[in-house]
Amino acid sequence: MALITRRDFHRTTIALGVSGALASVRVSGANDRVNLGIIGSGGRGRSVWGNFLKQPDVDGIAVCDVYEPFKEAAAKAAATPAKTYVDFRELLDQRDVNVVIVATPDHWHALQTVAACQAGKDVYVEKPLSLVVREGRLMVDAARKHQRVVGVGSQQRSGTHYAKAVELIQGGAIGTVHQITAGMTRNVMPGFVARELRGGLTKDLDWDRFLGPAPERPFDPFRGIYHFRWFWDYSGGQMTNWGAHHLDIARWALGEQAPVTVAGFGGRFAIKDGGETPDVQDVLYQFPTATINWSTREINKGKSDELVFNGTKGSLSITRSGFTVTPETWTGQDPANPDAKNEAPAMAPMTETGGNLDALHIRNFLDCVKSRQRPNADVEEGHRTAVMCHLGNLSTRLGRSLRWDAEKEQCVGDAEANALLTKAYRKPWVLEGL
């Protein structure tokens, strides 16, 4: 296991405690090319990296990963030679990098995004934005303080059919929406196994740097590549994986910042592979005039609609492939005309086809890097959606409902829950304000 040296500690303090000299890096102009670096080049990271490199104004010049095969694979994908690093702070020291992708496991997102903002870099950070609520607020604060463009990898925000669906819903096309269902189902019984490094730790992986601010643990290949998602130290299961996508659109369509009450239920009931996050989970969110019901299961595929808006005139069901509107027929009685019969649908059916979400999302972000406007999935929106996910998991783990004060970002009258809105980092890692 690699040790963090005194030099490493000094670099951590500089990168995360103060605004360094790199904060003066100039903003890209409208005609400039974007020099791109990536921190975290695993499966998802390389996919995002590849989509960025397809853009005509992007040069990939720096790659950082703690796992050698992933780092080398990403470097080879660049058209020109890219410098490679194991320590993300050395990548941030590379002055000609002006945009950074953060695609590491969730427990690293806050540290690396804040450090990148302090170094004068714009950031595209994968969802979920944060591991705990407090981290997300500090990420928003860093973006604003250092005047950085920080976008979140919530690509559904840039889908034209998602935007059209939101416009229809907010315009009353399907009537008033007071109930939304969202979810994700699949059957992965009897569980997961590690694919990489099953034979044991090798020099290809710097395990200590993988853990970073997370608690110290003996090497376990199942806690590492991809499967980190099933451990609370690093992620939040399907709630922060797919929930971060679908709940984001639901909240956008409602035009709300946050729920007022959250009640979560579930557990890891059937999958016995050593993971911790729920294999079955149901969370009910109460908003001022609507409810959202999130439901996920990993133990039965069955039938599940990813995201459905149930309006008084019709229901809009949407996926990345497109949306369908199914009309409703009113069967009740109008007190002003009790003998009238409602036989006609309340609206006409509709369908819409989806598009290339990744390309549209990345293009929007790059355009905002040049215009200095906020992107479709601005860091503040990413934070608000991550809060929903964190509260759902927190309620599920505590076994009780939570009332949320969005202005104070605190659970009302619940000291135990509020203590879990933040976390302690393993030394020497420090995030000022946490």
Q: Name the CATH architecture of the largest domain.
A: 2-Layer Sandwich
In the residues, how many domains can be counted? Answer: 2
CATH topology of the largest domain: Dihydrodipicolinate Reductase, domain 2
- Silhouette: globular
Straight-line N-to-C gap: 27 Å
- The CATH superfamily of the largest domain is known as Dihydrodipicolinate Reductase, domain 2
Q: What is the level 1 CATH name of the largest domain?
A: Alpha Beta
- The main sheet orders its strands as 14-13-12-11-7-10-9-8-15-16
Rg over alpha carbons = 23 Å
Could you give the topology of this structure?
Elements: H1 6-17, E1 34-39, H2 43-53, E2 58-64, H3 68-77, E3 83-85, H4 88-92, E4 99-102, H5 109-118, E5 122-125, H6 133-145, E6 150-152, H7 160-170, E7 177-185, H8 207-211, H9 237-241, H10 243-254, E8 261-267, E9 280-286, E10 291-297, E11 307-311, E12 314-319, E13 322-327, E14 350-353, H11 357-371, H12 379-398, E15 402-405, E16 410-411, H13 415-419
Parallel strand pairs: 1-2, 1-4, 2-3, 4-5, 5-6, 7-10
Antiparallel strand pairs: 7-11, 8-9, 8-15, 9-10, 11-12, 12-13, 13-14, 15-16
